[in-house]
Amino acid sequence: MATSAPPAPPAASRAQLIHIETDRRLGHEWEEWSGAPLPGGGDFSAPPGLFFRFAAVTIAVAAAVVAAVVYLLAPRLATLWAPLPTVLWLGLGAAVGLAWIWYGLLLASFYGGTSLLPERLLERGPYLQLMNLTSQVARAFHRRDWVEHAAIDVYNTLAVRRGRKVGKGELLVLIPRCLSKQAIDGVLAIAGRYDVPVFVATRGQLARRVIRERRPRAVVAVACERDMMTGLRDVAGKLPVLGLTMRLPNGPCRDAVLDLDVMEEWVRGWVGP
Ligand code: SF4
Questions:
Q1: Strand 241-244 and strand 171-175: pairing?
Q2: What is the pTM for the complete model shown?
Q3: 70-112, pLDDT tens digit by residue?
Q4: C-alpha of residue 251 to centroid of ligand 1, in Å
Q5: Which residue has its alpha carbon closest to ligand 1 atom 1?
Q6: Residue 90 class from Cβ within 10 Å (0-12 exposed, 13-18 middle, 19+ buried)?
Q7: Diameter of the chain by CA atoms?
Q8: H or E segment at 221?
Q9: Is 55 touching ligand 1 by the criterion CB < 6 Å?
Q10: Do 231 and 207 touch, CB atoms closer than 8 A?
Q11: Which residue's C-alpha comes closest to atom 3 of ligand 1?
Q12: Atom 4 of ligand 1 has which residue's CA nearest to it?
């Protein structure tokens, strides 16, 4: 937040003056933002089915791209070792078959209410890669934020279901710099009730440093969908994380609001009795 030293304003105009002087520093994920209001008032809520549809397209596209590469290289590869193209086709067929079986297990786990794979083979394993690849495909259709929101919801549902418990000193709450004052007050009240530390991470890099230094056993992180995707990709494989996305009624990187009830439920779930 940029500050200057103007003469003290009359009390009645102070709130407005603070608002005008707020410097909106965009996170790099939002650098291309035009300044126009975000669709839906910055609420990118979307049903899980949206992610699953895009994820299926992503698996099909990835298989087609690899198949095209093998097809194009096959004549050259055959000069190295005649059976090599056949071996690659068989390997690709097996990999694609496994990918679809895994995708079926993901669907059954999510909608069936019972995780059919351990977390390393599900939400804290291949799911993180699928989530990020799917985000790339969704960008081509201008549906990135909604698909990411749905992907993060699916991830959280699977992660919450594991029913983990950690000690109060072992949980870390990470919040971004863009929360509204009301949201920050709400987060601090929850942290105070459950006696858990809160850190404001101004950049993803700093968030990762805080995690390295504090060595928590679990994290509740708050961020917009775009920032949450990179955070989960980098951290969730190493550490249990729940990711709470926000609404951005005033555009990106300022005055974000969040669902405090969900945050309290997650914190209580992890450190409560
Ligand atoms: S979390 Fe907030 S500050 Fe960071 S990129 Fe998203 S909107 Fe901007």
A1: unpaired
A2: 0.89
A3: 999 999 999 999 999 999 999 999 999 999 999 999 999 999 9
A4: 10
A5: 223
A6: exposed
A7: 84
A8: strand 218-222
A9: no
A10: yes
A11: 253
A12: 27
